[in-house]
Structure formats: C-alpha cells, structure tokens
Amino acid sequence: QVSLVESGGGLVQAGGSLRLTCTASRRTVNSYAMGWFRQAPGKEREFVAIIDWSGDKTAYGDSVKGRFTLSRDKPGTTVYLQMNGLKPEDTGLYYCAANSGPISTRTGLPDVNEASFGYWGQGTQVTVSS
What we know:
By secondary structure, this protein is mostly beta strands. It has no helices and 11 strands.
C-alpha cells in the first residue's frame, strides 16, 4: 500500500504563488506517473497536471497551462506543483495521486481519468483571495 502526503497549501492573494509538495511512502511510485487534481466547493474534481515516472513528460489541464509547473525529484518519490499567477478560481482542495496504468504510445503518459489513479492523498487546501 502506498500513502501520499500533500503539503504547501495556504492562503494567497491573486497573482501570488504557492508550491505544493507530495511525498510518497514507498519507492514503488518511482515507476508510476504522478498527478494532481483539485476540487472546488460544489464542483467535480478536476484534472490539474500529470508527470511520467522519469519526470520528462508532463501534461496540464487547460485552465492551468502556462501558470503551473509539475516536477519530481530524482528518487521519484516526491513531486512538486509550482503554481504561479494564482487566480481566485484556483481555490480548492488539491489532491496528489499516483497512476500505475498503461502508457499511451502517443503521449508517453497514462490516462488522466480519475479512475486511472490508484492511490490518493488526503488533500491540501489552496485559497486564493481577490
């Protein structure tokens, strides 16, 4: 069993930055893709970003492209979500997740549907004030 622990959330003004960290309990995840989702009150959980096992390939949700950057350390057990240019609509509970599913030969990444992620953290709250 793998546990994921997120940290780095908080309250920030619009235009500000935060860096979220997700650390896995086992090195098993260094062969998994890792991703972030977020959920605002009253809304469905939304895909934010994913990174492959090597750290070389990433993909982002349309609403965060150009503002958020996902990276992972060399052991592969920690991922970092750098969030710049934050907007009030970025407010939500941010979840880290791990994906051991098959890799697309076209994208080099697994499916980003929620169901493809087998391990989830408890979430860290991000609040962006206007």
